[in-house]
Amino acid sequence: MSGALERTPLHLLLDRHPCVGDFLGALGLDAGDGQRPLGDWLRHLPDEELFDAGMAREQMLAHIQRLIGEVEDMARASRPLRSLTLLGGRDKSGQAENVELEVRAGEVVCIVGPTGSGKSRLLADIECLAQGDTPTGRRILLDGQPPGDERRYAPDRKLVAQLSQNMNFVVDLSVRDFITLHARCRMVADVEGMAEQVIACANGLTGEKFSPEVSVTQLSGGQTRALMIADAALLSASPVVLIDEIENAGVDRKRALRLLSGGDKIVLISTHDPLLALRGDRRLVIRNGGIAEVITTGDGERDNLERLETLDGLLMDVRDRLRRGLRIEDRLEWPH
Ligand SMILES: Nc1ncnc2c1ncn2[C@@H]1O[C@H](COP(=O)(O)OP(=O)(O)OP(=O)(O)O)[C@@H](O)[C@H]1O
């Protein structure tokens, strides 16, 4: 393939594989008019430019070849998953969990339990597609089968997107550039349109709107979380989304959950928040490191969820008024 790759005119290569343009751009290399075949272009590249890029010609060719292969693999690996099965292991005292839990695409499962009970551990087991090799001894099956090593140990072909409590960006890009870059890597048809959609969606989730021009490092915690949720729902290739709590500060949890569960992703959320816990299809109760119970959200609970949401709206309103420096002297009326 390397021969064929070398003979491909650069402009064709950039058209077919936008990731190559991003790669060359990141190295500060100019593709010129793109008429030359890749091999020819590389041979004519001045030595000092190669030196600045820190790569020999052969290495550069090998990198481009590998990049194209991996991006294609990623697209293949992103085909939908129908189910994820968790085979129980043991709790902190070594007692068997006796659980076989199948979560189907499109389902939202919440994980509840006291602090330190093992909710994050459960998410971590799913994230690494545990095969009896973590402290819990749990095993994870994908579409009823144990995942192959290539799925477990290829961090660049992620099956699972994990949104953790602290999200620190290491790049200093504007929100638009950051999401556009991701959209380009995902090879979506309309990169700019998709980026706009993700940003608009994130802005719909957060009380404090942000501009696409602001740097990702300047976003507040709530804004960052909203952006990551919109990105995971609309743009991420990963069929499984794991969320370690959606804090109620600044993110519309109801919309976030509706957005995430709208597609055919498998969503697991660890939470202490009753509004989130009751909005899942099912919830796992964790006790002493083990899954003690699997509860399907009942009709009565859904009714109560609506009442709690009204109460939550009242609380949010008071919070908003306090933030604006207002007094809360008038008698608050509980909704009936
Ligand atoms: N089945 C288990 N066997 C052994 N250790 C476990 C098991 N489950 C959890 N642990 C360990 O217990 C500790 C607390 O678990 P974890 O951090 O997952 O709790 P948590 O419920 O997420 O807490 P929080 O609500 O405070 O975030 C961790 O060190 C974890 O590795």
Features:
3 domains, 9 strands, 6-stranded mixed beta sheet, globular, 3-stranded antiparallel beta sheet, Rossmann fold, alpha/beta, 14 helices, binds adenosine-5'-triphosphate, 336 residues
Polypeptide structure, described:
This protein is an alpha/beta fold and 336 residues long. It has three domains: 2-77, no CATH class; 105-122 and 152-301, Rossmann fold, CATH 3.40.50; 302-336. It has helices at residues 2-7, 10-16, 18-26, 38-44, 47-53, 57-77, 119-127, 149-152, 175-185, 191-205, 221-234, 253-262, 274-277, 299-323, and strands spanning 83-87, 100-104, 108-112, 139-142, 160-163, 240-244, 266-270, 282-287, 290-296. The longest helix is centred in the last third of the chain and has 25 residues, at 299-323. The protein is globular. The model has no long low-confidence stretch (mean pLDDT 87). Bound molecules: adenosine-5'-triphosphate.
Task: Furnish the topology, listing elements before pairings.
Layout: H1 2-7, H2 10-16, H3 18-26, H4 38-44, H5 47-53, H6 57-77, E1 83-87, E2 100-104, E3 108-112, H7 119-127, E4 139-142, H8 149-152, E5 160-163, H9 175-185, H10 191-205, H11 221-234, E6 240-244, H12 253-262, E7 266-270, H13 274-277, E8 282-287, E9 290-296, H14 299-323
Parallel strand pairs: 3-7, 3-8, 5-6, 6-7
Antiparallel strand pairs: 1-2, 1-4, 8-9
Helix pairs in contact: 2-3, 9-10, 10-11, 11-12
Bound molecules: adenosine-5'-triphosphate.
- Could you state the order of secondary-structure elements as H and E? HHHHHHEEEHEHEHHHEHEHEEH
Share of helix, binned: 40-55%
> C-alpha Rg, in Å?
24 Å
Number of domains: 3
The named CATH superfamily of the largest domain: P-loop containing nucleotide triphosphate hydrolases
How widely separated are the two ends? 70 Å
Strand sequence of the main sheet, in spatial order?
A: 5-6-7-3-8-9
Supply the number of helical segments: 14
Low-confidence stretches: none
Which range does the strand content fall in?
Answer: 5-15%
Protein name: ABC transporter ATP-binding protein
Pfam families: ABC_tran (PF00005)
Keywords: ATP-binding, Cell membrane, Membrane, Nucleotide-binding, Transport
GO molecular function: ATP binding; ATP hydrolysis activity
